[in-house]
Amino acid sequence: MIVPESSLYNPDLAPTTPAHRTWTTYNYISLWFSMSMEVSTYMLASGLIAGGMDWKQALATILLGNLIVLIPLLLNAHAGAKYGIPFPVLVRASFGTRGANIPAILRAIVACGWFGIQSWIGGQAIHAMLVVIWPGIEAAPWSIWACFLGFWALNMAVVWRGVESIRFLQGFSAPFMLIMSLLLLFFALHKAGGFGPMLSEPSHFHSTGTFLRFFFPSLTAMVGYWATLALNIPDFTRYSKNQHAQVVGQAFGLPVAMTLYSFIGIAVTSASAVIFGHAIWSPIELMGRFHQPVVAFIAMIALLVATLNVNVAANVVSPSNDISNLNPQWISFRTGGLITGFLGLAMMPWKLLSSFNNYIFGWLIGYSGLLGPVAGIMVADYFIIRSKQLDLESLYMRNGIYEYRSGINPRAIAALVLGVGLVLIGRFVPAVHWLYDYAWFVGFFVSGGVYTVLMRGAVVRSPAPELAGEEA
pTM for the whole thing? Predict the structure, then answer.
C-alpha cells in the first residue's frame, strides 16, 4: 500500500484512479494536433526552407524525424497508462528515489525554456494585433514587453485551474486551429498565384554533400523537437482509459498533425519567397507584410490560441510535476507551475528566437543531447531490465528496491554522464563534431546501451505480483 505520509508522495504524483482515466483516443489525437499546430512548429518547417531546402526535402525531413521520435515516445508512454504514474515517479525506477531528481530537473529546465519561447511568441502575436488596431503603439518600445508579460500571466491563470482545463482547451482548439491554418494557406496561395509558383522554389544545395551536411543536424533537431515529450509522455498517458486509446491516438496524431502543419509552414514560407523576394520564417512578421488588417487580426487570434494551448500542455504539466518531485510534501502542481513560469522568463527567450540558426542548430540540437540519454536509460530499464514490471509501492518509499545507494543509482548516473559527455565533446572538438550533429541519437544509444550492460551485472529484484500493476 502506498503511504500518503511518505516524503515521496503528494496527490499530484499519486497513481491515477479509474475515475481519473477519462482520456480517449480522440483526446490524444487532439493533444497532438493542438500541440503541433502552433508557431514553433511552423517556424521549424519554415527554418528548413530558409536554410536552403526545397519543400519536398523539408517535409521528408520533418516526417522522418517525427516517425523516429514516435518510437521512444510510445515506449515510455506504456508505463504511464499501465501504472497511472507521471514521469518523475517512473524515472525513480532507473535513477533511484533521489537520483530521479536529476533527469526530472534536466527535463524541467528544457520545458522552462520552451515556456519562455512560447510566451514570447504569444506576446508578439498580441502586439501585432494591437498594431493592427492602434498603429501608433508600434513606436512604443515598452509595448512588446507589456504584451509578453500579459500573455505570460494568462498562461499562469490557466495553470492555476489545473490539468482538466488543458483537456477542455484542446477539445475545441484542435479543430479551430486546423480551420485557421487552412485559411492562412489559401490566403498565401491566392497571393502567390497558385501552388505552382508557391512550391517552385528550388533547393539551394547543389551537391549531395552540402545537402547532407545540413540534413543530418536538421533531422536531429526534428527528433529533438519532441524529445521533451518522449520523456514526460506518462504525464498524459496516466489519464488514458487503456493502452489502445493512447497508442492509436498518438501513433495517428503525432505524424499526421506535424506533417500537415509543417506543410502549411513550408508552403506559406515558400509563398513569401515568391511574393516578397525572400523567405520570411516568422509568421508574425509575415502577417504584418500583407497589410490586410482583418486577415492579420484573425491570424493573430489563431496564433494566440495555439500558443496558449501548447504552452500549458507541453511546457507546464511536466516541469510542474518535475519540480514538485523535489519536495512533494511542500511543492504542489500549482506551485511547480508558477516556478516554471518565472524560470521561463529568466531564460531570455527573445535570444533563442533571434534567428533560425539559434533556434534549430543551437536550442533544439543542444538540449536533445541532454534528453536523449535519459530516454535511452528509461527505455532500457523498463523494457529490457524489468520487462515492464514495477513495484508501485516502492516508487513512493525510501529504503525499497529503488533506493540503490542512498536513493541514487550510480549506474544510471554513469550512463547519463557518458552519453552527455560524448555530445559535449562533439560540440567543442571540431574533428568529432558529428557527435553533436547526431546529439539525440548518440545520447540515446550510448547511454541506453551502457546502462543495460551495467545493470545486467546488478541484482534487480522483481516486484511481488500484487504490486506489479495491471495492464490498463
Answer: 0.81
